[in-house]
Design goal:
7-stranded mixed β-sheet, 312 residues, 4-stranded antiparallel β-sheet, 13 strands
Length: 312
């Protein structure tokens, strides 16, 4: 399924999960308040849900009901009087907050509890960060270091552009270059970019402060639960009270020239695979520096709790 179609299904799953939550909250006689952006997101995503095949709709509805069954087992709504429901924009993830749905639970004493929920349809990636913000993601404050890193990124792309023109003067898409040389992109984009990234991380982030910042960005800055929809079940992943790392070891290449491994001293092993975020390296006559990481945990079931809830 193309990325845009996957995104639409993901938004549809968020929408139907919200609807199931709203029904459950109302049935309990609790006060329900929606933020304006939650209202706006629901209106937008209803269209995505309505455009899906009935079979897909039914599967998402079963997933949302399984999630509500889990919420009831956790007693989230017991003894509560008011629920505020918010939906966070995708831009929150850029800052390290993976939350899609935020519930603020109030009781008779007006005390508050926050529940952060990340909704995923099929994919298991933790993050899809782009390269230029790497220094900020690591919490690096030195403006000179940031400047040098991004200048090196630009230089690698400029050298790639020159070599691409020599290989095929008319090419504007990565696929055209692969047809001429299957290893061209690996050798001239992925390898030099990743070597520079690994050097930056080892020199500037392999300490207790910056390792923690980068790890928190990749895995989430807040306590949250991920709800992953699968064909016959949902997975509840507890990203709760995760111990921060103080250092890491990098292995590059890891299984592929496009990927490196980070082994953090808190037991987490993350693979970061670099890939192009666009099919074109030339867009509107200009160089399109479009790459991002696919970040996966290689041992997630060893470092956090994961529950399976069978759909009914």
């Amino acid at each position: 399924m193309p990325n845009n179609a996957e995104n639409e299904v993901g938004r549809a799953f968020e929408y139907v999960t919200i609807q199931e939550l709203m029904k459950n909250i109302s049935s309990r006689g609790l006060v329900l308040k929606l933020t304006q952006r939650a209202i706006d997101s629901n209106i937008r995503d209803k269209k995505h849900f309505d455009n899906l095949d009935k079979d897909v709709q039914n599967n998402l509805e079963k997933g949302s009901r399984a999630f509500l069954k889990w919420i009831e087992s956790q007693n989230w709504l017991n003894s509560k009087t008011e629920i505020e429901l918010d939906r966070l924009p995708d831009t929150a993830g850029v800052e390290g907050d993976p939350t899609d749905i935020r519930l603020t639970l109030k009781d008779t004493r007006n005390s508050k509890e926050i529940r952060n929920i990340s909704i995923k349809h099929h994919h298991s990636a933790l993050k899809h960060p782009r390269l230029p913000r790497l220094p900020d993601q690591c919490g690096v404050k030195d403006e000179q270091l940031k400047k040098e890193f991004n200048e090196d990124m630009d230089k690698i792309w400029e050298e790639f552009s020159i070599k691409a023109k020599n290989l095929d003067p008319k090419a504007t898409k990565f696929s055209q270059l692969k047809e001429k040389d299957s290893e061209f992109i690996n050798k001239n984009i992925y390898e030099p970019l990743l070597k520079r990234v690994c050097l930056f991380l080892n020199e500037n982030a392999n300490n207790s402060i910056n390792a923690k910042s980068f790890f928190s960005f990749l895995t989430g800055s807040f306590n949250f639960y991920t709800i992953k929809n699968e064909e016959d079940k949902i997975l509840i992943k507890y990203f709760i009270d995760i111990k921060s790392p103080k250092s890491f070891e990098i292995t590059y290449p890891y299984k592929s020239i496009t990927t490196f491994l980070m082994e953090f001293d808190n037991g987490w092993n993350l693979s970061l695979r670099l890939h192009t975020a666009s099919s074109s390296f030339i867009r509107s006559g200009r160089l399109n520096q479009s790459t991002k990481f696919d970040v996966q945990s290689l041992n997630l079931d060893k470092v956090i709790k994961i529950e399976k809830i069978i759909k009914e």
